[in-house]
Design brief:
The chain has 327 residues and is of the alpha/beta class. The protein is 31% helix and 21% strand. It has 11 helices and 12 strands. The chain has a 12-stranded mixed beta sheet, sandwiched between helices.
């Protein structure tokens, strides 16, 4: 199945002879509650590193091997951020029902063809906060108390009012940055076990990607929680740790904390893009397989070329799998 983007500014999606076309105007980005949150829809539609600036945004598609549950959630490449939020929340609910404890949700926030860093740092954090909030709203039907950990104390204070209309959540934070904390010394630190309340049922970690100490705190939370509550990490950019972005010599505490830890995480929804002439995407929607999509040189069509049950490394996708299916 080949997915093709039309240059016309149309909102309709048409399917003919196995080719799917989606107009540039087919963005269905944010819900009514997001507009009430005070974030300009135009920022998402027409911002500098936005949805439309990307050469392709994906479209509904097939894939050779789909499990029954994935058909329920919506198979194929996501066509909008509404798709992303819906699939991420539904898959997360399913994983919680399946008894999964460590859940990862990861996707680019400045466009479905973007990569982390395409946008300005504060802007990406703002978008991550908005989409995290949308996921929490979608999880309200679980009727479970969710403790939401923001990266640091200041970010938690900034977001507390904005998340005020989300039911059944408690706002918390992972770190209180200081020169001493970077050395692993914090005389004012409150242990995670002392911040957990008995009736907390789920921990959601919001974009812990700026400072390595944030994921160290997530490990401490996991180790100190005697009830083994589920931990959901949203846009933690865990691939940077997996790929060795942080050299062990310079980040010994992070290396020690993450050793054997990230392997526990299952991906509810995962989207990582690869740019360049041989670009494409690695995508997974639980409980489906990891699907690899390739785009043509013009960036106007996208097709699934491969899938497997286990998560490949980014190096394997970029250097082995995508080149294997080069046109």
């Amino acid at each position: 199945l080949v997915l093709t983007l039309s240059p016309a500014a149309a909102t309709a999606t048409t399917v003919r002879r196995g080719v799917t076309r989606i107009g540039i105007g087919g963005f269905a980005g944010i819900s009514g509650r997001s507009r009430q949150w005070g974030v300009s829809e135009n920022f998402h539609r027409f911002g500098k590193n936005n949805f439309y600036s990307s050469p392709w945004n994906g479209a509904p598609g097939g894939g050779q091997r789909r499990c029954e549950a994935q058909a329920l959630f919506g198979a194929g490449f996501p066509r909008s951020y509404n798709d992303i939020i819906r699939r991420a929340s539904q898959s997360t609910k399913q994983m919680l029902q399946d008894g999964k404890r460590f859940i990862e949700i990861e996707f680019p926030v400045t466009g479905l063809a973007a990569v982390s860093g395409d946008g300005e740092g504060a802007g990406e954090m703002t978008l991550s906060a908005q989409y995290t909030r949308e996921i929490l709203i979608a999880l309200e039907s679980q009727n479970k108390i969710i403790r939401v950990f923001f990266p640091d104390e200041q970010e938690a204070k900034r977001q507390k009012k904005r998340f005020g209309d989300v039911n059944n959540i408690r706002i918390d934070f992972l770190t209180r940055p200081s020169a001493l904390s970077d050395l692993g010394l914090d005389p004012f630190k409150v242990e995670m076990k002392d911040r957990i309340q008995e009736d907390d049922e789920i921990f959601l970690i919001a974009y812990p990607s700026f400072n390595p100490n944030e994921m160290i705190a997530v490990r401490e939370l996991s180790d100190q929680d005697t009830e083994s509550r589920p931990i959901i990490v949203v846009n933690g950019e865990l691939d940077r740790i997996r790929s060795g972005y942080y050299p062990p010599f310079f980040y010994p505490r992070l290396t020690s904390a993450m050793k054997g830890f990230l392997e526990y995480f299952d991906q509810a929804l995962y989207l990582h893009n690869f740019k360049g002439s041989g670009g494409g995407a690695l995508y997974r929607n639980y409980p489906g397989e990891f699907e690899i999509y390739r785009r043509d040189g013009l960036g106007t069509s996208v097709k699934q070329v491969y899938s497997q049950s286990t998560m490949p490394t980014l190096k394997e996708v970029s250097l082995e799998i995508l080149p294997r299916y080069a046109n």
